[in-house]
Amino acid sequence: MLAVIELGWNQFIVRKGETIDVKKLQREAGDKFSVEALLVTDDEGKETKVWVPTVKGSKVEFKVLEQFKGEKVRVFKKKSKKRYTRNKGFRAHLTKLEVLSVA
User: Fold this and answer.
1) Does residue 85 contact residue 76 with C-beta atoms inside 8 Å?
2) How far is it, in rounded angstroms, from Cα 9 to Cα 11?
3) Nearest residue to 63 (alpha-carbon basis) of 93, 92, 20, 7
4) Total structural domains in the chain?
5) Are residues 95 and 67 in contact, defined by beta-carbon separation less than 8 angstroms?
6) For the purposes of burial, counting CB atoms within 10 Å of the CB of 31, is it exposed (0-12), middle (13-18) or buried (19 or more)?
7) What is the DSSP annotation of 2-20?
8) pLDDT at 103 over 90
């Protein structure tokens, strides 16, 4: 089974057993939770269920594996002939999730 879900204003395509990184969720490591899917289909795409805004009765279960910080992103600014440079770094807070089941 394949599902499209929405977490933290982003949409993800998930399958059972995959791990995904999402924006930080206020949950502890080891917690389990579920969300409704926007789209559910089988692996071949023959049976597809789409409903607005979610598919009624659909359920995608997750387990929180860890909270961590992503890779550093460099932000560099420069203005020519003005001796102006700025170099900053940013690391996003992320949550690693494991997909337990798609129904």
Assistant:
1) yes
2) 7
3) 20
4) 1
5) yes
6) exposed
7) EEEEEETTEEEEEETT-EE
8) no
Q: What is the pLDDT of residues 47-95, one digit of tens each?
A: 888 888 889 899 999 999 999 999 999 999 999 999 999 999 999 999 9
Higher pLDDT, 83 or 1: 83
Strand ranges in the chain using DSSP code E only, listed in sequence order: 2-7, 10-15, 19-23, 32-35, 39-41, 48-50, 60-69, 73-79, 84-90, 93-102
| Rounded Cα distance, 80 and 62, in Å | 49
Stated pTM of the model: 0.83
Cα(88)–Cα(74) distance, rounded to whole angstroms? 6
Q: How far is CA 20 from the centre of its chain?
A: 6
pLDDT given at position 8: 84
Q: Tell me which residue range forms the domain holding 43.
A: 2-102
Type of residue found at 89: G
